[in-house]
Amino acid sequence: MRQWMVDPRVLCRKHLLGEHVEHHMLLGTLRKKKSIQGYLDSNLLQPSTIYSRHRQLTLEMVSRGYNHRSPIHRAEADFHTEYLSEEQYHHTIDRAPALKDLLSRCPDCRRRYDKLNEEE
User: What is the pLDDT of residue 49?
Assistant: First the structure.
């Protein structure tokens, strides 16, 4: 599971849809009250943003003409994170290394990133 926590417009189709589905996988993991500490230690998750980040991703999906039929409700995300410690819940991803990692892995995301920077 991974949240890139970069501007969703940067994400290629594969990474946009992948991060989206991983939010649902994360919610399933939280429903089962499984440990997510390894993901936190690896700078892959930011639990306090499950609802808002999912919303950002779905807005980008819709703007690209993709169908979205799998909402996450705020109450559901909040309920399933109650067992996390304060430190776990408020863990934040260091976005600069995450972006660097993404752009080094994916030429399609790199092109989208470069194009967005040219436009701004």
Answer: 96
